[in-house]
Predict the 3D structure of the following.
Amino acid sequence: MDPVLIDGRVVSAAVEARTREGVERLAEAGVTPGLAVVLVGDDPASQSYVNMKEKDCARLGIRSFDRRLPADTSQEELDAFIAALNADRDVHGILVQQPMPSHLDVERVVAAVSPIKDVDGFHPENLGRLMRGLPGHRACTPWGVMAMLDHYGIDPRGMRAVIVGRSLLVGKPMGLMLLERDATVTWCHSKTTDLAGVCRTADLLVAAIGRPRMIGPDYVKEGAVVIDVGINRTDEGLVGDVDFAAVAPRCSAITPVPGGVGPMTRAMLLANTVEAAKGAMA
Ligand code: NDP
């Protein structure tokens, strides 16, 4: 049987529709959600991400505050800048685009953003809240994967979930979110022995590695759900961490690349911004 194609464009549109409703309800209360996107330096890829986020905001009626700072901005200047955004009542969400110039301390910057405005979900308090099972902003990419599973009626409860990747951005929070939903979770990484064997135990396999098409059919159990977070630019264009053509026939459901997890991250950022604005009213 053909696998179900988990379509990130469909799910992100559904998430955006809910976000738009949230924006309309806030407007009735006289509040316009605001997202400040801070970009230090002139990295072209970051500039294009920031531009996309601003367009997303405009489409949904979220006010965006474009804050571009020179590459030689000092740590103290950036700290003061973030403190001003924390205090600004029109700004509900703050995102500091990564990567930053190397003289800036990422940990210090992440911690400087107020947890209630940390719509990226990277602040230690929000990660701690996830660990403790408390509400808080969730990291956008894994949170987007959870929205995809829910949209397609895939309940992680009782599933054996294997996540390849343990980054703070994706792999670690992904596993905690699946654990929160009663999956039995295993994390894998570059030191895992018999990676393919571990992956073959998975009912739900999440690849967040950054290695083009590394996950082949020998990593996948018949009937598994496969989520490909990877985005790799190759000579053949954008490809995931999963060898889609070879793996799809073994799966019950699978995400494509592009058009899978990719569109979800931006959609969840906007959803988190609206949640932050609602929280500021409470
Ligand atoms: P990182 O480089 O931070 O982490 C990669 C992880 O993969 C690490 O834990 C690493 O292990 C593990 N890994 C690397 N090589 C191997 C290997 N040969 N075998 C087993 N594990 C391995 O990447 P990110 O988590 O930030 O991103 C992962 C992928 O997801 C990338 O392709 C990225 O572009 C994509 N991405 C997509 C997003 C989206 O919106 N769809 C958003 C964010 C990321 P170790 O810890 O041991 O080094």
